[in-house]
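Morning. Coffee machine broken again, so started the prediction first thing and wrote up yesterday's gels while waiting. Chain of 112 residues, entered below exactly as on the submission form.
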Amino acid sequence: MRIRSRRLELHISQAELGEALGITFQQIQKYEKGVNRVAAARLSEIATVLKTTMAALMGEDQAREGKQDSVVSEFVSSKDGIDLIEAWSRLESQQVRRSIISLTRSLAAEGH
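Came back before lunch.
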């Protein structure tokens, strides 16, 4: 999940990451879904390509800070979550931000 999150944050496709590592995008998919375990040496390579640390990919930095809520963690690890966060960060108007929050709460309450 952390590999996927960091890859999406950097706007790198599975194919691009696989190419940088000399492996197939299918192998990247398996790593991201947890189907295949990631060897330490491979994790080190992935961390280098994704410009992060092995500790960050293993969640060790998060464990020291306390576990994040799983809903939030899943959201920020998704493509939609990353896209929304990036767009949100470009909004300058507090009034627009409040309106978006209000709209989102209304839609959620209606079950959309």
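The CA atoms of residues 30 and 101 lie 35 Å apart. Going to sketch it on the whiteboard this afternoon.
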